[in-house]
Amino acid sequence: MGSAGEFANFSQEQRKAIAEFCVAKVNGRKPVIIGTASCSTTEAIALTQHASDIGADAVMIVNPYYALMSDERLYNHYKSIADAVAIPQLLYNFPALTGQNLSVELIGRLADNCANIVGIKDTVDCISHIRQVITEVKGRHPNFLVFCGFDEYALDTLLLGGDGVIPATSNFAPEITCGIYQAFLDKDMVAVQALLRRLAVLSKIYTLEVPFTGLI
Prior knowledge:
This protein has about 220 residues and is an alpha/beta fold. It contains ten helices and six strands, in the order H-E-H-E-H-E-H-H-E-H-E-H-E-H-H-H. Helix 1 packs parallel to helix 2, helix 3 runs parallel beside helix 5 (about 105-115) and helix 5 packs parallel to helix 6. The longest helix is centred in the N-terminal third of the chain and has 15 residues, at about 10-25. The two termini are about 15 Å apart.
């Protein structure tokens, strides 16, 4: 129920059914993160509570994506969800689709004040924003998880001290991005280079159709 999961196209009932199916299908073999975003804080809390109730390990929440909000309003949106449901929560920054960037200052304030906001998926076409989140937020909170959202920034994120990538292409070609991660851990730069070249070709899929989710 993230972007490639087309969450905005489903009713709340459908989203809950999909979440239930995923948690049951995985059956504890791997951690499950459910997207619970909504423009409505009340609905986001309800979906987050449902994810917690069915046994999801964490949720990921993109900011409201219609009316632009001040940092104070965005802070109150996220803090209200974090206060209402104890499940670990990841922020999700995707300004190309929401029309609004989550500032490093806002991310840091949420990390400072909400113990269950444990990380971020930063889908920005700008490595400097990811770098700032790593140096300024993760610098204060070493356990704060920083994932990039664009596949091609996986290695940069890892080299800067981030934690990985949440890539849409892993739905059908996991050997590439998972391979980059493993090669990074193994310090095998020859394998990294070969996989990055494959990923460079694969990443064209995001520009072949709008929205790209049908191709995924």
